Amino acid sequence: MMKRILGIIVACYFLASCKPLNPSIMFRTPKDYKYDTQIKDTTEEYRIAANDAISFRLFTNNGMKLVDVTENNSQMFQQLNQGITYIVEFDGQVNLPIIGRVDVNGMTIREAEYFLEEKYDEVFIDPFLILNVTNRRVTIFPGSGGDGVVITLQNNNIKLLEALALAGGLADKGRAARIKLIRGDLADPEVYLIDLATIEGISQADIILQANDIIYVEPIGVTSRQLLGEVTPILTLLTGLLTLYFVIDRVQ
Length: 252
Known about the structure:
Layout: H1 2-17, E1 53-60, E2 64-65, H2 74-82, E3 85-87, E4 93-96, E5 100-103, H3 109-120, E6 128-133, E7 137-141, E8 149-152, H4 160-166, E9 174-183, E10 190-194, E11 214-219, H5 224-251
Parallel strand pairs: 7-11
Antiparallel strand pairs: 1-2, 1-3, 1-6, 4-5, 7-8, 9-10, 9-11
Helix pairs in contact: 1-5
């Protein structure tokens, strides 16, 4: 009976104490996972969506600064001149000065500029509008827990290598040979495996990023020293329990 009890105690403690190897690794893929190999056309323009932050500057006469000669609406004219940020609401509409709520959902930046110029044409002479989406961003995990960053795409030509540099480069524990680029609908994403461990792999870094891309540098994982540190307490307890068992067995 004593042997059985001790066996159960040892088994339960071992199962409860065991931790999965490499617990910090995210976005795991099975060994036979087929990564995407053909990068789709990255020249496709970004389309405005709900929760986007947009700013624009409005000019008249195809480029002249707006001036309120009456000074009755000077604050409103200042907003149009300075490029105040506006949030696209959940239904794709945005509330703008003078013209009110308009639907810009699904439009490219250029399409939205033309659309808003037509709206402001009812108020101003030959309006000229410059629009920008200010929250187009990329999420980067450089290979070490707690070091993830979100960077804003300042232009349409930010490449993978530039984004990694903006994030501070790869972490000490990052694996340059296993960098995952996750793109598109997260329910069915495109996943690319990129190897930057050798100079030959630099051609793979020549990828123009798109808004909402995720760059994940896989960490090295558990080292032999870390594994030994995890196992040592368990072995110590097992040794103590076995010693106790032999002592009790001899006494009996």
